[in-house]
Design brief:
It is a single chain. The protein is of the alpha+beta class and 152 residues long. It has one domain (2-151): 3-Layer(aba) Sandwich (Aminopeptidase). Helices cover 26% and strands 28% of the residues. The protein contains three helices and seven strands. It has helices spanning 11-25, 87-101, 116-124, and strands at residues 2-5, 46-52, 58-66, 71-78, 106-111, 128-129, 143-148. A seven-stranded mixed beta sheet has the order 1-2-3-4-5-7-6, sandwiched between helices. Strand 2 and strand 3 form a beta hairpin. The radius of gyration is 14 Å and the shape is globular. One of its GO terms (molecular function) is acyltransferase activity, transferring groups other than amino-acyl groups. Residues 3-150 form the N-acetyltransferase domain. It holds the Pfam family Acetyltransf_1.
Length: 152
Amino acid sequence: MRISFESPDQADAIALVAELDAYQDALYPPESRHALDLTAVTEQGLLFVMARDEAGQAVGCGAVVLGAEYGELKRIYVRPQQRGSGLAKKIVRTLEDAAIASACTVLKLESGPYQPQALGLYARCGYERCARFGTYADDPLSVFMQKNLAFS
């Protein structure tokens, strides 16, 4: 598998994000979905990665949006056929390394309670539950986590 920084407005990325959206649409009501349109974020604040298999097919993606106070992981997704291979952890680590290189010291994320595999991944990567942040509202279907990158 190869993970590289690519544009989120290409067909492969759009297809992966559409798969993620369809998956989350089945789990959460619209008011509890906090999807980010990756093409709407200014390029300087967005780092987007694609994971490709040996044939060059897109099999996973992820992004970090860098802000003044913290970065936020968004759109981490691996196709079901590649799950369990450690690919999602590699995507997260690649994004963390890029955030560190951009002088980001804290990464945060919002996920949901109906995604125990994702929550387990984030916990294994060193993320801990935290209070809501940013513009997120209190929602029983939101789980907030963060990681201090200065200690990773």
